[in-house]
Design a protein that fits this description.
The chain is mainly alpha-helical. It has helices spanning 2-17, 34-45, 48-66, 70-84, 86-92, and strands at residues 21-23, 94-96.
């Protein structure tokens, strides 16, 4: 029990020490790695490829749920939902300082 309390205290203190969150901003044209961001986020994740992959994962999860496979169903539905909304997730991630 004492190890659990020690870990809980360490996590609590670490949470109190964090000063603030800064959102990740999308790179502007001409900045470092803008081409990579444009291809991966703008064309793949926001485009039809990301939407189709997300819908496919959700459909796979629903089919797994019908067949009684709970873990693949949870992973498929959660992963598909994250993939469909990945463009907004990529911009809303925060970094603690």
């Amino acid at each position: 029990m004492s190890k659990v309390k020690t870990v809980a205290k360490a996590v609590g203190i670490t949470g109190l020490l964090a000063s603030g969150a800064v959102a990740i901003t999308a790179p502007t044209q001409g900045s470092f790695a803008y081409d990579l961001y444009d291809i991966v986020i703008e064309k793949l994740l926001k485009g039809p490829a990301g939407f189709v992959a997300g819908c496919g994962a959700v459909i796979y999860g629903a089919a797994s749920l019908i067949m009684g496979r709970i873990l693949p169903a949870i992973l498929g539905i959660t992963g598909g939902a994250l993939l469909i909304k990945s463009d907004s997730i990529a911009q809303s991630l925060g970094l603690l300082f």
